[in-house]
Design brief:
Largest sheet: 2 strands, parallel
Radius of gyration: 18 Å
Oligomer: single chain
Structural class: mainly alpha
Distance between the termini: 48 Å
Strand content: under 5%
Strand order of the largest sheet: 1-2
Shape: elongated
Number of helices: 6
Bound molecules: fe (ii) ion
Length: 210
């Protein structure tokens, strides 16, 4: 892994915590990999597991809190994404175990170790949630791509799993972004620095359209 901690989404300076520079070495790992390298990959995967567990919960939160004229379309669009992301959490956690590590799946550990703030939007119109969700997906995808780079030499099997997950995550973000895109191809959320700002910009653009 690089020195830079995973940024996640909408990181607030006061919430940033140092990422431990080394993970505990597992007693064993997969054949052909040293326990030291296995420990590094486990550490990286623990944060990806947090990101995916957080994403699955956030998607359900939006599913429950979306309101307005496009409620049913967005409400129903999200459940297949939840199912897919939950499958990703399972694959990721079991890869950690396969490597000789212990996946941390409890909410307390997730909240203590994550590098990003809780999703910022409560009950809101569908377009506002989609604006904020675009930023959520950007954070998860950027960090997944960093993890792909970090495993390029250490563990191609983990890298393959992450790439497969990215294929779906990027597709789901496109489903979200298609709602935010103008006919000219611009995203209403471009350069938004927070979920609230993205929600507000998405809402404003939608209200401008006839
Ligand atoms: Fe439901």
């Amino acid at each position: 892994m690089g020195n830079k901690p995973p940024t996640g989404r909408t990181v607030h300076a006061e919430r940033e915590r140092p990422v431990p520079s080394s993970a505990p070495e597992p007693k064993y790992t997969v054949p052909g990999m040293t326990p030291r390298t296995g420990g590094d990959v486990i550490q990286l995967l623990n944060m990806r597991l947090h990101a995916l567990n957080d994403l699955a919960l956030t998607l359900k939160h939006i599913h429950w809190n979306v309101v307005g004229p496009h409620f049913i379309a967005v409400h129903e669009m999200l459940d297949p994404q939840v199912d897919s992301v939950r499958d990703m959490t399972d694959t990721t956690a079991e890869r950690i175990s396969t490597l000789g590590g212990s996946p941390h799946g409890t909410p307390g550990v997730l909240v203590a170790e994550r590098q990003w703030e809780d999703y910022a939007i409560g009950r809101a119109e569908s377009i506002e949630h989609l604006g904020a969700l675009d930023l959520v997906y950007s954070g998860v995808i950027e960090d997944h791509r960093e993890a792909v780079k970090a495993t390029d030499e250490s563990d191609l099997i983990t890298q393959d799993m992450l790439i497969e997950q990215l294929r779906s995550l990027e597709l789901f973000q496109w489903f979200v972004r298609a709602h935010l895109e103008s006919a000219g191809g611009s995203l209403s959320t471009a350069s938004a620095g927070s979920e609230q700002e993205a929600a507000s910009r998405a809402g404003k653009q939608a209200r401008k359209q006839p």
